Amino acid sequence: MKLYETLAAEIESQIANGVLLDGEKIPSVRQTSQHHNLSITTVLRAYVLLESRGVIESRPQSGYFVRPRAQRSSPPAPARAAAPLVLSSEVDVSRLVLKTLRSISKDGAVPLGSPYADPSRYPWKRLSQYASTIARRHQEWSVMNDLPPGDPQLIRQIARRHLENGLAVDPGEIIVTVGATEAINLCLQAVARPGDTIAVESPTYYAMLHAIERLGMRAVEVRTDPTEGIDVNALAAVIADQKIAACMVMPNFQNPLGFQMSDERKRALVELLAGHDIPVIENDVYHELYYGDSHPTSLKTYDTRGLVLHCASFSKSLTAAYRIGWCLPGRYTADVEKLKFLNTLATSALPQMAIAEYLQNDGYDAHLRKMRKAFAQQARIMAAAVLRFFPDGTRVSEPKGGYVLWVELPGRVNAMALYARALEEGITVGPGNMFSARGSFDHFIRLNYSHAWNAQIEGAVKRLGRLVAELAAAEN
């Protein structure tokens, strides 16, 4: 098929699956050109082809719309399978993480160690209005409204969001979860068993280590470049040396390093794992918080065998309060849906419906542009402040998205010692020990820069720099 025919087929499939509804406007020619990396001429040919087939129609000065037609049948529900057993863990970072998270809630503490974005960045008031309206509209509520895979309107909006970002997905594959953390846990439970070995980045986000810990599995850390991501050759060597049940990575704006893996490396990673029939769980929660001119691709983009289990969430981009995430589990969809039912039964429908209405009716893109601009600016400010106020020898990451900065302390200053001293002065940091199953990175910290820069935060960074200098001097 030619490029325009392939694009036309994807759009027609999305219409058939109910992602794009009768009478609904489809993405503009320019948007589709940018998101799919196609020429405007190619997109126009695709739209003309669809118009000739009676699938869409153009309206002067308004754009292209789905032409109304007979009601379509919904895709069949996936089959169900048995759930695996759950045992205890051999990886132990959860106590350190819990202690760190509790310290963030201390009165007046500067939350530089928080994993959450500044809540004032989110349209909480608007979402609450939608939730209140929906609650008044539904006088009676049943748990049947909450059952997996999730609210149909939210699933449609998620599928549409993926489409607008250049990835056509089957809505029948989407399972709504209680945040991305549950999605990660369910996906891992679907692809591996207690005692299995899971390959992870080094450093890696601690929620992934928690999942491995909870399910009684083992983590093997793979060398990860701070700007390019996981070393595919190093991973290949690990696979050759031992049996790997699955791989878990964050290819876009990894927490804590902040890198964006190149398309070439993403493709190479997917091809390597597919060659060994190894599933990969992709944590893509920061996908919408990019600093560049266009959204990044995901591993799911290069998946042809259903081995990529894509996990995402609205917690980083829209609201952390509702804890609404989702996953696209590929060939493991039936297993994950069954596990979702057995583990938590359901995800509350009210926040799902509120988010769905916000996505449909409000300016989500405008909100995201505002957040991206602010975070990109604050990333530069925080990095410059750390290099200015911390002793010589300090090194910082160069995040391409998200809102966290990875800092290497000079002279191998102990991160836990700094954590304790900083907490005494009302400042929280994320000690690097949390990001390794082996307790590595004990001279690194993670800093959150999502809050608007002000005198309090600048003062906290100055005090941190003084504490680092004192600890470095004590070691000499």
Keywords:
single chain, 476 residues, alpha/beta, Arc Repressor Mutant, subunit A, Aspartate Aminotransferase, domain 1, Aspartate Aminotransferase, domain 2, 3 domains, eight-stranded mixed β-sheet, four-stranded antiparallel β-sheet, globular
Query: Which whole number gives the mean pLDDT?
Result: 89
Unreliable stretches covering 5 or more consecutive residues: 71-92
Indicate the structural class.
alpha/beta
CA(first)-CA(last) distance = 67 Å
Family: In the C-terminal section; belongs to the class-I pyridoxal-phosphate-dependent aminotransferase family.
Keywords: Aminotransferase, DNA-binding, Pyridoxal phosphate, Transcription, Transcription regulation, Transferase
Domain HTH gntR-type: 1-69
InterPro entries: Aminotransferase_I/II_large, HTH_trans_reg/aminotransferase, PyrdxlP-dep_Trfase, PyrdxlP-dep_Trfase_major, PyrdxlP-dep_Trfase_small, Tscrpt_reg_HTH_GntR, WH-like_DNA-bd_sf, WH_DNA-bd_sf
Can you characterise this structure?
This protein has 476 residues and is an alpha/beta fold. The chain folds into 3 domains: 64 residues, Winged helix-like DNA-binding domain superfamily/Winged helix DNA-binding domain (Arc Repressor Mutant, subunit A), CATH 1.10.10; 138 residues, Aspartate Aminotransferase, domain 1; 238 residues, 3-Layer(aba) Sandwich (Aspartate Aminotransferase, domain 2), CATH 3.40.640. It contains 15 helices and 14 strands. An 8-stranded mixed beta sheet has the order 3-10-9-8-7-4-5-6, with helices on both faces. A 4-stranded antiparallel beta sheet has the order 11-12-14-13, covered by helices on one side. Strand 5 and strand 6 form a beta hairpin. Helix 7 crosses helix 8. The longest helix is centred in the C-terminal third of the chain and has 26 residues. The N and C termini lie far apart (67 Å). It comes from Telluria antibiotica. InterPro entries: Aminotransferase_I/II_large, HTH_trans_reg/aminotransferase, PyrdxlP-dep_Trfase, PyrdxlP-dep_Trfase_major, PyrdxlP-dep_Trfase_small, Tscrpt_reg_HTH_GntR, WH-like_DNA-bd_sf, WH_DNA-bd_sf.
